[in-house]
Amino acid sequence: MGDSSDSRPEKSAGGSRDNPRATGAVRLSDVAAAAGVAAMTVSRALNQPELVSERTRERVQRAVIETGYVPNRVAGALASSRSRMVAVLVPTVAHSLFADVVQSMTDTLACEGYQVLLGLTGYQREQEEAVVETVLSRRPDALVVAGTRHSSATRQRLEAARIPVVEIWDMSDDPLDMLIGFSHHAVGAAVAEHLLGCGYQRFGQVMADDPRSHQRAEGFNARIKAEQATRPQAGIKVTTHWADIPASLAGGRSGGAALLARMPDCEAIVCGSDTLAMGVIAEAQSRAMAIPDALAVMGFGDMGFAAATWPALSTVRIDGAGIGRLTADHLLKRFETRHHEPLHDVLDIGFEIVARQTTRAHRS
Amino acid sequence: MGDSSDSRPEKSAGGSRDNPRATGAVRLSDVAAAAGVAAMTVSRALNQPELVSERTRERVQRAVIETGYVPNRVAGALASSRSRMVAVLVPTVAHSLFADVVQSMTDTLACEGYQVLLGLTGYQREQEEAVVETVLSRRPDALVVAGTRHSSATRQRLEAARIPVVEIWDMSDDPLDMLIGFSHHAVGAAVAEHLLGCGYQRFGQVMADDPRSHQRAEGFNARIKAEQATRPQAGIKVTTHWADIPASLAGGRSGGAALLARMPDCEAIVCGSDTLAMGVIAEAQSRAMAIPDALAVMGFGDMGFAAATWPALSTVRIDGAGIGRLTADHLLKRFETRHHEPLHDVLDIGFEIVARQTTRAHRS
DNA sequence: AAGCGCAATGATAGCGCTAACATCAACAGG
DNA sequence: CCTGTTGATGTTAGCGCTATCATTGCGCTT
User: Fold this and answer.
1) Whole domain around residue B273: which residue ranges?
2) CA nearest to A283, candidates A304, A307, A306, A259
């Protein structure tokens, strides 16, 4: 029956704004009136164009432009229970590795019309708990969180939310749902293995005081302990300095100084991040210690600058952008298939030791 | 009542779960039933507790915990036309300066229950246009965007949205609404002034190829041109190299190499960012050029690492975190007063030249 | 007793959209 | 002719909240 429902005398684009609760913005029904179709048809023309005839689709498109319509996805989300938002919880974005993840995830999701709701957990559990709650109140279609160690309250909330959850940047045997990351313990062990292979024996560590750095340090120490057991006479030893978080170049520099004070005969310093490593190098350079001859330095992260410093930094490469892309792709696939049951699936993307000029050559 | 073990999802939970469109989550009305009050009272107890008697407030709080209620702010936003979200549009977060802004803004807003909807514009106008549209469809309460140069379509949409808009990280005489930033042209001029004051005459520039770097380069060149006019015999000259974006240490290094090839007698290189500067320094060190004696280097941004490198980087300090905090505070104040008219207000937060060790001392 | 102000609470009616079903025209086969 | 099928469109009834106004109870004045 077409247009009998709308009162004809209304003045064109202005519409019936007599209701005090209306926002005054152009609505779907305004576009529908302009195109001479029902609101539902406009909704379909925009969201499932294949269900609408070409003629109508064009009429609607013209009406959208004419009225300057911007869809209200808040209302859409309420009606359809799909918000097309993905919550991303990371400790900080002021750290290149997490920034890479957020960047690539945002880019990938944007292509499919999804958007990122950013939450910063600041390396603290209680902050994570609060952020999880506020973020879930927006009813995101999925949640991505860095790390696998959550308070039980957080775990409960995440399970109750019944949305896909991806833990990233870590490994665990017992993921909440999907897990995309790498083993920090294995990184530490591999670094130890590599440096032992280079012939170093007296090690320092300058690590940030966060859970994942602790895991890497543990992995490192475990491998070293094994070597000490095998070759007790070799004089292998380790001293560790914990730097404040967030890790900074200045923290690396003072950490390096502190470490060298405690262990003057240190041959190689393993750092919790490339940034800390740069700080250690700066400290060494200010003491005119030759690198890597007087002191070897190993970073973590292979951040953009690592390859281009002088001397070029030996480090561990993590593909942060890859994690972001994989995570986004995985989520998009699940949205498509509407598969909302937890998977308990683990994807280890691994890491790579990149030997450059701040460590001496490996005796292969 | 204990907790519900996860193996058995919602079964009864007193309510009309027979409706196929209900999400199955705990609703306000479920809490109301548990507390023995009306839904509206629960809403008030949570959002305007001062309007509710202490006795009722406590009953509601207990019911919230008992039921595990997580508010649905999508519905809340639709009903109240207040989403408590702020859209933040920056070119990238994989750049420490913008990451700082995003970080501090997110932190400050989170305290008041506001959340950040992140949009990445990738330095490209058409991408900005698309991002603005999708972001506005979420009906954020305000929008923050880096830069002042927008396409006319973008400007129109932003004006039509009738929400506070803050442009940051730049200066303009004609802001859309609020503007918090600094003059890139003035930065360039001040750097030129400073380096001339140090006695340098043959300048190189390694700049990223983005609009704001262009403005700084222009400011620099303008000041140099004035000096050339004043002292035509002095042999003052400038060569500029444009590096690809996003700026990287590697880009700085190759840019430095390219510049030195074109201008072997260059005395001082001004860089578009600290990252580029680090690259130039790395290139100089690989050529055993002493810094600052054989070559002076000036950065931009005073990123965390600038003070701690060896030699410590002379640079221009921008208070990114300050911009983020100021912006957030400003918005929170406007939300409080519900002042939604554009202000056309400009706040210049300035900058500071930080002379460290990569430039020689200023002849004061 | 009636009236008034005030604080606390409840009932109602949407916000702008979409899921689900209803309708309708056009056409095929029996 | 009827019936069934298909594709395009329309109608209805919410999604889960909150703005708004109505109602209630209580202490106080007149």
Assistant:
1) 184-317
2) A259
Residues in B 277-296 with any Cβ partner in A closer than 8 A:
278-279, 281-283, 285-286
- Closest Cα in chain A, distance from residue B253 (Å): 7
Cβ–Cβ pairs < 8 A, chains A and B:
175
Distance from CA of B282 to the nearest CA of A (A): 5
Indicate the burial class of B339 (C-beta count within 10 angstroms; 0-12, 13-18, 19 or more): exposed
- Tens-digit pLDDT profile for residues B55-68: 999 999 999 999 99
Per-residue three-class SS string for A248-292: CHHHHHHHHHHHHHHCCCCCEEEECCHHHHHHHHHHHHHCCCCCC
Confidence of residue A274 (pLDDT cuts 50, 70, 90): very high
Q: What is the pLDDT of residues A154-180, one digit of tens each?
A: 999 999 999 999 999 999 888 999 999
Selection from A169, A170, A186, A358 nearest residue A274 by Cα: A358
CA dihedral A278, A280, A281, A285 (to 10 degrees): 140
- Work out the angle between the directed axes of helices A125-136 and A152-161 (0-180°, nearest 10): 20
> Of B43, B70, B283, which to mutate for an interface test with A (greatest number of A Cβ within 10 Å)?
B70
Which of B90-104, B199-213, B333-347 comes out lowest in average pLDDT?
Answer: B333-347
Alpha-carbon distances of A186 from A40, A174, A189, A361, rounded to whole Å: 55, 17, 5, 21
Instruction: Read off the pLDDT band of B18 (50, 70, 90).
Output: low
CB nearest to A307's CB, from B71, B250, B307: B250
Dihedrals φ, ψ of B206, to 5°?
Answer: -120, 105
Q: Is pLDDT of A222 > 50?
A: yes
* B15 C-beta less than 7 Å away from strand D: no
Residue B40 placed within a domain = yes
Residues 208-227, chain A, touching B (beta carbon < 8 A)? none
Contact call for residues A140 and A82 (beta carbons, < 8 A): no
Q: Collect all residues with Cβ–Cβ distance below 8 Å to B15 and sequence separation of at least 6.
A: B27, B29, B30, B33
Q: Same domain for A22 and A123?
A: no
Structure tokens of A215? 């895991």
Q: How far apart are CA A223 and CA A228, in angstroms?
A: 9
Residue B360 lies in a domain: no
Any idea how long chain B is?
364
Domain boundary among A15, A42, A71: A71
Same-domain check for residues B123 and B202: no
pLDDT 10s digits, A55-91? 999 999 999 999 999 999 999 999 999 999 999 999 9
**Tokens at B99, concatenated:** 């990451």
pLDDT at position B363, please?
A: 82
Q: How far is A135 from chain B (nearest CA, A)?
A: 8
**Beta strand A115-120 pairing with A85-90:** parallel
Task: Report the relative pairing of strands A142-146 and A165-168 from DSSP bridges.
Answer: parallel
Q: Report the C-alpha gap between A56 and A244 in whole angstroms.
A: 62
pLDDT, tens digit, 9 for 90 and up, residues A92-132: 998 888 999 999 999 999 999 999 999 999 878 888 999 99
Residues 6+ apart with CB under 8 A from A30: A13, A15, A67, A69
CA distances B243 to A232, B1, B189, B214, Å, are 53, 64, 20, 11
What's the domain count of chain B?
Answer: 3
